[in-house]
Amino acid sequence: MNSKHAALSEKFIADEPRTNWHDETLWFVREKRDKATHGLPEWEQLREWASQIKNHTLSNLNAYLTEFEEKAKANGIKVHWAADAQEHNEIVHSIIKKNNIQKIVKSKSMLTEECHLNDYLQEKGLEVVDTDLGERIVQFRKEPPSHIVLPAIHLKKQDVSDTFHEHLNTEKGNNDPQYLTEAARQHLRSKFIEADLAITGVNFAIAETGGFVVCTNEGNADMGAHTAKVHIACMGFEKIIPKAEHLSVFLRILARSATGQAITTYSSHFHKPRPDQEMHLVIVDNGRSRQLGRADFKNSLKCIRCAACFNTCPVYRRSGGHSYHTTTAGPIGSILNPNLDMKTNADLPFASTLCGSCSNVCPVKIDIHEQLWKWRQEIVKEGYVSSDKKTAMKGMSYMFSNPALYRFVGIIGRWMMRNFPNLLKSKHNLWFKQREMPEAPKKSFRDWYIDHQK
Amino acid sequence: MSSRNKILNAIAAHQPDQVAMPVIHHEQVITFENPFLQFKTIVESIGGKVVLVPTIQFIQSEIQNNKSASKYIINTVSELGDVPDNLNKLTAAALEKLDTVYIRATLGVAENGAVWVSESQMKNRLLPFICEHLVLIINQKDIVATMHQAYNKIDISTEGFGAFIAGPSKTADIEQSLVIGAHGAKNATIYIIE
Ligand code: SF4
């Protein structure tokens, strides 16, 4: 196995103050989430409903997608199906060519990132302008987003100021977020007004009505979609929900989980194109039907991409989104990505302490940390694990299945830690790398427990 | 085989066992003693303004003032005066300098400060987004407690477009500092008619 995540994290944490800042900023978002959810007595009930609606939907996916397609077509939306990223990109490109489009704006869509649409279109000589502020910042810097909700969370305002000075000619050294946001607003206004085509993502698609909902705080999806003569919305097929009334559950949990807001500023419901407009919807598989067939991992398709699991994750907060070397980082990304490419992403399920905080905050109750644990076993079985890890894990599993040996090793370990601490504090102990070894207690927990039972 | 059939077949082959659809019980969700007060508190906390007026005519003087200050104003509410009938023809280029728009909306949601606006109310899909200052008007009796009651009252599929709008547009993409006025309106005022 490559240990890409570990190597990239090492680079990230080299700047300690920045790492601490990153850690604290995301924890701050997690705390805002807590405040928003604790204010609702029915929070746990909402999670349960959301989880059940998603379970029900997955068990009737074929029927709901068929119903959705029929209703959407009746609404005047052109529906396309893409088996993989390549086909998705080709469909978008063919619409562009047919309409002779030059100017393209795109609001946030993790699916188009997953399919690397921008790169594909760039090769065809077409420029896509990302209009979400965070995405525009990273686009200028030729970086991928580091977080699915907060794309530029790895950057400080000084970085943004430098980037805007270079690309938008803002005052050098002016780091005021208000000033920088206003500069982006002016710049992107002109892009909206010129746009022939708007590409958006989809947060929820409603089978019963054949429409879809897009949520933003900035208003960029709307500025694009209501201006351009062609609108293409792209969605993974798991975005489907059965009924309009289910939107109440999902809109109540989405923003609260994501940023601690009670709702995003705009929750836009699209059902029909404007009279002078073409509206397309691309429904994408790209490995999702395969994941649906993996009993242990199918639940990951319930994800609504709120990123609560990122913000709470002790590993994500301290290693940054780019250390995951994939479009969707964080705990959920580490479940989705091995499905796309097990070998390349074999390191990701190991980028977790399995503390379970992700599963606790997940608004649709995905058993995230358990799935990470299960992926580790799959990956070991497939032989994608590095030899260091393999030896250590084999030894551990032998020891854990052998209680007498476990107790014996515990006694030796505690004795060694008390008497030869420096032996363990060496580079041969991979666990010691970037960690302090704890003080060893005299007794094991088991002995302590037996003593206290007396 | 087309991708459509390939995908649908793969899904059918892998679909998990049947799970029942849950029933959403509205009596299990939060209620507010004073929905208006809750609505006002939330809207103000997200950068918007709430003004209670006895009748809609109270808004007319504001429109007059704005007009005499020669600001670019669009009124979509017939109770407030003439509504131009070409509104849906106006393009982004024509609306770029729009200062204020007045729109009658359907309802407000106490738990989150959102207001539902349908396409027929906004007349042109761009208006609530491209303006600097968004003015929405609702009746006090149309403030509901939560999104559950809101979806009960509206039908999202009768018109081509509709949106819940909660306050002015915003972003926190630069170091998590909140900035009001990203791409949409920089100010939002909700007039509530008693
Ligand atoms: S796995 Fe759960 S917590 Fe993580 S992004 Fe998806 S819905 Fe949110």
TrEMBL record, chain A:
Gene3D superfamilies named among the record's database cross-references: Alpha-helical ferredoxin, NagB/RpiA/CoA transferase-like
Keywords: 4Fe-4S, Electron transport, Iron, Iron-sulfur, Metal-binding, Repeat, Transport
GO MF entries: 4 iron, 4 sulfur cluster binding
Keyword Nucleotide-binding: no
Stored InterPro entries: 4Fe4S_Fe-S-bd (IPR017896), FTHF_cligase-like_sf (IPR024185), Helical_ferredxn (IPR009051), LUD_dom (IPR003741), LutB/LldF (IPR004452), LutB_C (IPR024569), NagB/RpiA_transferase-like (IPR037171)
Descriptive protein name: Iron-sulfur cluster-binding protein
Pfam families assigned: Fer4_8, LUD_dom, LutB_C
An example Gene Ontology biological process: lactate metabolic process
Sequence ranges assigned to domain 4Fe-4S ferredoxin-type in this UniProt record: 293-323
From TrEMBL, chain B:
Domain LUD: 102-193
Full protein name: Lactate utilization protein B/C
Signal peptide segment: none
Pfam families: LUD_dom
Chain segments annotated as coiled-coil in the UniProt record: none
UniProt xrefs under Gene3D superfamilies: NagB/RpiA/CoA transferase-like
Species the sequence originates in: Flavobacterium hydrocarbonoxydans
